[in-house]
Design goal:
Distance between the termini: 12 Å
Strand order of the largest sheet: 5-6-10-8-9
Number of strands: 19
Bound molecules: flavin-adenine dinucleotide
Oligomer: single chain
Helix content: 25-40%
């Protein structure tokens, strides 16, 4: 069990990084003590900012020896409180923000080595400068860091075509709990040598090791793209449109995002520069994107033809196809701004869930009934990555309604929502992870054998339990 760090241990840690790599001043430390959603607030004696893997390794070796708990910290955009220390004031925060070198790019091999503190947008830009694509894309990409993105196995808007973060990694460098450095940075498309250790660290939310660098998969830069907003009467119609687009365009379908009219209304009203499709008569909107490597794919023409056929078959009510990059960006801005519009509007009860894609309409129908029955002061805002079966299934407080009464509904609604998701063969955390937010619920609902295996792995990789205690797994065997 970790224990409070002694003055001597703190001095040893500070000596490794020097004054430039250590924050103790209350104002400087404050941003590391609360999570993005302000659900958690903690305390720490020290924020450590190693500038390279060697320093991170020496810090971990000291923490291991001294039994100091360590909380890894990236861009702090996670939704589950994973990067926030507890309130004991004894857990040390280790932030990777000074490790932001792009170590190398191999255009021919389509690979790039980035340090953990690079923001996701810095990696995207480095790839673009080499005329390559790093396809992971999230609303928080300007702030989220590669270490955090991999540690949460983030998803985002291009999973349909390119997969989750785990699918985009060739190799990793990580510091283990005792300070040893795991260095498996090879960029091999084929490598069947033993267990896939790197995949364990991806999605482990800092509980099995500190990621310091990654070798990431790149793709040819798309030369052609087409974006549209289509109106549909129901989620079932959106599903039919997804099927048509898949049949017509195969893996050139890179984005398929569902938005209810209500979400579009509050976003178009509150946020500047977003597309406004409200002139289309529709209860739901779908943001569709096609992208491909060849210049002569005529994707806009193909998208228009597929949408016209869907209109003819009464699958969609109407559609608008972007005629310029600016219009396409405004369409994406509409989708990406929904969380901000929801925050500006007031309190929300949020669930990040997934079900098999074919069951999304049933999830929306039955989930909507749950909100109406169990949180009647809220309006349903179920939106997001429909092409992946992943919705952000939220209730947003009605204007003027009592916030405290609304929040009291949260536990009952969450239980009912998770029961529903489970009954549909889904997941209670599609892409945001477990952190501290869902650790108890995960322990209660996961397969007991799976949980026992996770604890066994944790004991092997972090026998003293110093890495991000209380996150993902509740303590105990
Ligand atoms: C506006 C917005 C939009 C978002 N959209 C999406 C989306 O579409 N899809 C999606 O999946 N997520 C989304 N997210 C949440 C998403 O999980 C994060 O944005 C991102 O993946 C976390 O990166 P971060 O660097 O901020 O990590 P942090 O929040 O700092 O940390 C997240 C977890 O990783 C651990 N960690 C951080 N760095 C390391 C490291 N180097 N080694 C080991 N562990 C580490 C932390 O301890 C913590 O447990 C969104 C968030 C916001 C605010």
């Amino acid at each position: 069990m970790p224990r409070p760090p002694s003055a001597a241990a703190l001095a040893d840690l500070q000596a490794v990084v020097g004054a430039a790599g250590c924050l103790t001043d209350a104002a400087a430390v404050a941003p590391f003590l609360a999570d993005h959603r302000r659900l958690y607030r903690g305390a720490t004696p020290l924020v450590l900012l190693p500038k390279n893997t060697g320093e991170a390794s020496r810090l971990l070796a000291i923490c291991h020896r001294e039994l100091c708990a360590v909380v890894p910290h990236g861009g702090n955009t996670g939704y589950c409180g994973g990067a926030t220390p507890d309130s004991s004031g004894t857990q040390i925060v280790l932030a990777l923000q000074r490790m932001q070198r792009i170590r190398s790019i191999d255009r021919m091999n389509l690979s790039l080595i980035a340090e953990a503190g690079c923001t996701l947008s810095a990696v995207q830009e480095a790839a673009q400068q080499a005329d390559r694509l790093f396809p992971l894309s999230l609303g928080s990409e300007g702030t989220a860091q590669i270490g955090g993105v991999l540690s949460t196995n983030a998803g985002g808007t291009a999973v349909l075509r390119y997969g989750m973060a785990r699918d985009l990694v060739f190799g990793l460098e990580a510091v283990l709990a005792d300070g040893r450095v795991l260095s498996v940075l090879k960029a091999l498309r084929k490598d069947n040598t033993g267990y896939d250790i790197k995949s364990l660290l991806i999605g482990a939310e800092g509980t099995l090791g500190i990621i310091t660098a990654a070798n990431l998969k790149l793709f040819p830069q798309p030369q052609d793209a087409a974006t549209a907003l289509a109106g549909v009467d129901s989620p079932a119609a959106a599903l039919a449109l997804l099927q048509r687009l898949r049949d017509a365009t195969g893996d050139m379908l890179t984005g398929f995002e569902l938005m209810p009219r209500f979400a579009v209304e509050i976003t178009a009203l509150q946020i500047a520069g977003v597309a406004n499709p409200l002139a289309l008569s529709a209860a739901w909107f779908v943001l569709v994107e096609l992208a491909g490597p060849g210049e002569d794919l005529n994707l806009r023409t193909r998208l228009e033809a597929t949408l016209a056929a869907a209109h003819e078959a009464e699958v969609i009510t109407d559609a608008t196809v972007a005629m310029s990059m600016t219009q396409a960006e405004a369409m994406w801005k509409l989708r990406e701004s929904i969380p901000e519009a929801q925050t500006r509007r007031g309190a929300s009860l949020k669930h990040d869930v997934s079900v098999p894609v074919s069951l999304v309409p049933e999830l929306i129908q039955r989930g909507g009934e749950l909100i109406a029955r169990l949180a009647p002061l809220g309006d349903m805002i179920a939106y997001g990555h429909m092409g992946d079966g992943n919705l952000h299934f939220n209730a947003s407080l009605k204007v003027g309604a009592a916030v405290a009464e609304f929040r009291r509904c949260a536990p009952v609604l969450e239980q009912a929502m998770f029961d529903l998701v489970e009954s549909l063969g889904g997941s209670i955390s599609a892409e945001h992870g477990i952190g501290q937010l869902k650790a108890a619920e995960f322990a209660r609902r996961a397969d007991p054998v799976e949980i026992a295996l996770m604890h066994a792995l944790k004991r092997t990789l972090d026998p003293r339990g110093i890495l991000n205690p209380g996150k993902v797994l509740l303590s105990g065997p």
